[in-house]
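haha ok so turns out i had the wrong file open the whole time. this is the CORRECT one, sorry everyone. sequence first:
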Amino acid sequence: MRSPIVNHFFDEPTNTFSYVVRDPDSRACAILDSVLDFDYPAGRTDVRSASAIVDFIEREGLSVEWILETHVHADHLSAAPYLHDKLGGRTGIGAHITEVQTIFGKVFNAGTEFARDGSQFDRLFEEGDTFAIGGLEGRVLHTPGHTPACLTYVIGDAAFVGDTLFMPDYGTARCDFPGGDARTLYRSIHKVLALPDETRLFLCHDYKAPGRDGYAHETTVAEQRRDNVHVHEGVGEEAFVNMRRERDATLGMPRLLLPAVQVNMRAGHFPPAEDNGQVYLKVPIDRF
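then structure:
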């Protein structure tokens, strides 16, 4: 099995890891789960995190074939439009984005101008689809539960799992967002854990479990099976579902959920400007 070259980029304010995945035998690469910096109190955006990726790709002389999202993130805004303008590449996400767009299109009263068919993206991936990064083949696992549209991208001996799994000492994703489901997540996780033991798993977030120094972004299937505090071998579906439901009931809302979902369901684009030329994001009062 071929092994892609993986470089990570960390945004500490959102605890997010973005990745550049490169074919070792060519200049072809893909970008996964990029971050647009957003100062929520000021309502201001910045591209410093995305520019670090642009600088790296230009310095290495790489060619971007894909700008991929593992799901519609609730904790950071995507920088996909900026990266596409700077570097090219096709945007991709799971085909079940349409479910997320339907749910949150209603929540934000997005109106008829907001397409709910996923057409903001260049490619909508289904379970089992394949794609190329130079000579590397990627394949798609549909791994819902955290959201309906979550994907795991398996590229050579590496898998990019989004929020489905965290480091073994931190556990698994929450399932209490609209469209989430703990039982579905359990089954999705076991789809990932059916990959070969040595498969490298690259995570979208790390929150540093108590007692651990430093952030981490990579683990393996074998380590997750053995050590994951929520879903190690021997944890049954009912026990997991009960744990996840009880734990989720104690969690607060992600700080950037409201702006992030409005932007990310549009493939990283902001809602259209209103008649005064100003772009606005909505805050539904007493909705969540």
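The mean pLDDT is 96.
again sry for the mixup
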